[in-house]
Design brief:
Shape: rod-shaped
Radius of gyration: 51 Å
CATH class of the largest domain: Alpha Beta
Strand order of the largest sheet: 1-2-4-3
CATH topology of the largest domain: Gyrase A, domain 2
Largest sheet: 4 strands, antiparallel
CATH superfamily of the largest domain: General secretion pathway protein M, EpsM
Number of domains: 2
Distance between the termini: 163 Å
Strand content: 15-25%
Order of helices and strands: HHEEHEEH
């Protein structure tokens, strides 16, 4: 027996295809939404992690800035303390300069040389005196140059004068006093400086 399908089968097939496409489209949409959601959550996680890192870096920068300021203050305080220490050491060294000067003058001034005035300005010493001859003045300058406490003897002027009917050489001389270290001052205070004066 032959059966004839009088139903609109083409429309039914199209309707089934549309339903199938609709289901596929819904599934694709859901899948796309899931993918977008996953990507969004992943990116949001990365952003959150980076934000935490940024906040950590900001906090560390603030802490480091404070530490740098403290280090600068400590450096300033250390520099001030070192400056005070140097001043104290210099004062301790300068305190014995007069003793060194008098000791050196006693030891280094040769026979036949007499000092009239001594003037000290800082480390520079000016002295005026008399000598029996110019050779005695030269000997005095050599002694000063070889002294461990005096240096840079400089003859400003020398001239012949008469003192008590005796012809002598009047001289004006500058010499510098060497600055002694504080530890050298302690050592030198135990004994007089040894320097054999040359006698002219």
């Amino acid at each position: 027996m032959i059966r004839i399908n009088l139903l609109p089968w083409r429309e039914a097939r199209r309707k089934a295809a549309r339903q199938h496409l609709g289901v596929l489209g819904g599934m694709v949409s859901v899948l796309a939404l899931l993918i977008v959601g996953a990507v969004h959550l992943t990116i949001a996680g990365y952003i959150a992690v980076q934000s935490d890192r940024n906040e950590f870096l900001k906090r560390e920068n603030v802490r480091l800035d404070k530490e740098i300021e403290e280090i600068k203050k400590l450096k300033s305080e250390i520099a001030a303390l070192l400056a005070r220490k140097q001043i104290i050491e210099r004062l301790q060294a300068d305190r014995a300069q007069a003793v060194y000067l008098l000791q050196e003058l006693v030891q280094q001034v040769p026979d036949g040389v007499y000092l009239k005035t001594i003037k000290q300005t800082g480390l520079k010493i000016n002295m005026v005196g008399y000598a029996q001859s110019n050779a005695r003045v030269s000997t005095l300058m050599r002694n000063f140059a070889a002294s461990p406490y005096l240096e840079n003897p400089d003859l400003v002027e020398i001239k012949a004068v008469n003192i008590s009917n005796k012809r002598v050489s009047e001289f004006n001389m500058n010499v510098s006093l060497k600055r002694q270290q504080s530890d050298d001052a302690g050592k030198s205070g135990k004994g007089a400086p040894k320097a054999a004066p040359a006698k002219g």
